[in-house]
Structure formats: C-alpha cells, structure tokens
Amino acid sequence: MLPNAILFDMDETLLTNTIPIESAWQEACETSAKRVNTFSPEELRLQINIIREWYWGDPERHRFGRLNLLKARTDVVRMSLEKLGCGDEEIAAAIATDYSSLIDRSLSYFPNAEDTLRQLIIKGVKLALLTNGAGESQQEKIKRFGFGRYFPVRLIEGELGFGKPDQRVFETAMKKLETTPGQTWMVGDDLQRDIAGAQQAGIYSIWCDYEKKGLPEGLNIRPDKIIYNIAELISL
Predict the structure, then answer these.
(1) pLDDT, tens digit (0-9, with 9 covering 90-100), for 32-44
(2) What are the start-end ranges of the H helices in 33-124?
(3) Which of 47, 54, 63, 135 could connect to 159 by a Cys-Cys bridge, CB 3.0–4.6 Å?
C-alpha cells in the first residue's frame, strides 16, 4: 500500500538536465576560452573536471557551494584557469555564467515524473518537496515547473538554514503534513543526503537509480528500496 505521505527530493529525482554536463562545460569553454591562446577549450574542460571533482567532494565545500552555485562554479573555473597559467577573473566569470545558463535552459522533468505526482495526488498521498540549495534559485525552479500544484509543503535549505541530511528537515516536513515516520516514504537520488538522512529519521527510503549504476562499493548506506523509473512508485 502507498503511505500516508511521500517526501521528494527535486534535482535529479524529479528534474534533470537534458544536456550532458560534459557537453555544457565544453560549449561554455569553447565560447569564452578562445580569448586565451595558451590552451585549448578541451584542455580547460579537462582541468575543470579535475577541480570540480575535488571541490564538490568535500562535504563542507559542497554545503556552502550549493547555496551559491554561480560563485562556486566561478571559483572552480578560476582555479582551473590558474592551473593553466591564466588568472583572468573576467573569463572565469563568463565561462561559469555561460555554463549555468546552458544548464538552466536544459532543465526538464524526468520522464513520467509529473504524471506520477498527479497519480499520487489522486490517490490521496500527501506530498512534500525537500530540496537543498539557495532559496532564490530553487524557488525559481518550483515556480517554473509548477510544483506548487503538487506540493503544499516545500522546504528549501537556503530558507530553513539547514538542509538534508539534517533530521530537522524531515521532521519539519512530517509535522507540516501531519504524518509519522512509519507512514512516510522519502524518495531521492542522493544516498547520503536523501537516503541516510531519511533512515536516521526512521523513514522508509527509496533510492532513484535511474542510470542503473548500482550501489557504490564501500558505501554502507543501503536504501529500503531501489527504483529505476519514478513511475514504479505507483505499483510499490
């Protein structure tokens, strides 16, 4: 049976980018890096890959970076340019802005995502949206994709002052929905923030493995359920 309430992550659970990240970075580099003749756009993209993996791999940098994505991306590009012998702040800002624009324009619902939300509403399941990130940028997505029609409760890290996996996020959502952990599911793509966070709050956790990569080796987090298409929620 479906639960009384379901908590949803937003990015890479309900929404995704139709342009691959690598392609977006390549295009942004080709547009702006031509102003520098000492390296190619491809060399810069490869360096950006190295720096952004390092940057986002640290939990603290991740927490602060996601609250100001444009600044974080600009910092990544700036450090990448410095590695290639260029300290041009203007070029770094232009590349980060171009990339952000490409990514924002490519944002779309995952296949079956909106229909699944509609069906859950029809079936009487109460829904809440739990998303990390800055208040302004996440509110823009919520408005753009009409999430207000489906989610009476929308909790954003940048507005709350804390985000997933902090148990207060899950507890706040359940309180607003007037539900309990035993009557609630959490659906998300991030094993640490969505799945482990929900499990610590006593909530049944459903991991979205849309690319069918499987659980990473060496990670002790085990979701209660794995789905490969969001439409599977209806038949659980």
Answers:
(1) 777 777 788 999 9
(2) 41-56, 59-65, 69-83, 89-105, 113-122
(3) 135
